[in-house]
Amino acid sequence: MLLEHLTLAAAERDEKALTRRRRTAYSACAPQQAVSDACGGEMHSLLTFCSNDYLGLANHPALIAAMAEGARQFGAGSGASHLVSGHSLAHHRLEGELAAWFAPNIPHAAALYFSTGYMANMAVLTALGSADATLFCEALNHASLIDGARLARAEVRRYAHRNMAELEGLLVASTSPLKLIVTDSVFSMDGDFAPLAELLALAERHDAWIILDDAHGFGVLGEQGHGVLEHLALTSPRFIYIGTLGKAAGVAGAFVAAHETIIDHLVNTARQYIYTTASPPAVAHALSASLALIAGDEGRQRRAQLDKLIHTLRSGLAGLTRAAGWRLGESSTAIQPVIVGDNVAALALSAALEADGIRVGAIRPPTVPVGTARLRITLSASHTVADVERLLASLASVVPRKEAS
Ligand SMILES: *Cc1c(COP(=O)(O)O)cnc(C)c1O
């Protein structure tokens, strides 16, 4: 019965071009990466534009060395959860460094390290979203924020993408004693920004807090790479900031930076923190090395390179997408979506690029709204301008030109 049911569901997925298949990587995360084809068969080396390794640190020699050194010093595993015996000096040091990074933007900031961003988001929303709270959630929030809101006991209100008038209406109408606005800073499938200065003004006017997921901003935005708050020079105790460490930081995990009283509450009540084994200390040790790179000259150079690549790509895509009748997202970040619309068309485009040695993911519902299937191009500082030019040339060769009328 179960198997028949699932086989039917799989057939339906196939019919709608929604089946997902994993590819196996045979080499480290890098622009040129060896992967198996979708059926797990033959291996190809592809020029890849779909990782979130925005600064190109995932395969950086200094981080590999730090991970090895961390393992030598602290072992392979942590052995227990943080509150039992798994909290190591490596975790503790990392949290101290992150707290110092956020001190200018969040008064009395403390930081708490989590194994993944998914868990950090679930933890914040469930630990703070008590029964008397209301969560005001942006429509395009990441799946982990959506799941956190589902699990929280709080009432959940949703506002349309970047629609501050609608959000204000909801805040005005709310009688909840604890109002929590929940948003991505940079939207993961679109690359555009939440209007953060306006959000903060609303939060101040209506005594609300802002749970801010900066997964795609941390490391990349700001003079020192501290993320969107540094970038926009915003300071407020109302920010409950979540940064992930598996994207620009190149390793794994995530952290929450917020007023120390909030962090203390998470340590004591967040089930996603308490009831799971602490991640390997070596990972935290490597992350401290990553923070040093991000804030230093090398980080600055890598961010400048990324900006140059974003500019080159967007200039080239503007004409191309117009000719093809596609839509280029309003994005100034490393996430550049080319919205094609149809699932089959997006998959065909991705396959045509692959035949030319280039890997770009086709993103389909339910990850994005129905009718907005897209190529999601992501850039890394380890790409060269020549890599981007090769992508543009390849896209130009597969563009379905609209008939001249
Ligand atoms: C990737 C991502 C997460 C999840 O982080 P992981 O560390 O990969 O679990 C959360 N929020 C956003 C916006 C993301 O893009």
- Distance between the amino and carboxyl termini: 54 Å
Number of strands: 14
Give the biggest beta sheet.
7 strands, mixed
In terms of DSSP E residues, the strand content is: 15-25%
Identify the overall geometry.
globular
Q: What would you say the CATH architecture of the largest domain is?
A: 3-Layer(aba) Sandwich
CATH topology of the largest domain: Aspartate Aminotransferase, domain 2
Spatial strand arrangement across the major sheet: 3-9-8-7-6-4-5
Based on CA atoms alone, the radius of gyration comes out at 22 Å
**What portion of residues is helical?**
40-55%
Structural class: alpha/beta
Number of structural domains: 2
Which segments are poorly predicted (pLDDT under 50) over 5 or more consecutive residues? none
Bound molecules: pyridoxal-5'-phosphate
Oligomer: single chain
EC number: 2.3.1.47
Keywords: Acyltransferase, Biotin biosynthesis, Pyridoxal phosphate, Transferase
Catalytic activity: 6-carboxyhexanoyl-[ACP] + L-alanine + H(+) = (8S)-8-amino-7-oxononanoate + holo-[ACP] + CO2
Subunit structure: Homodimer.
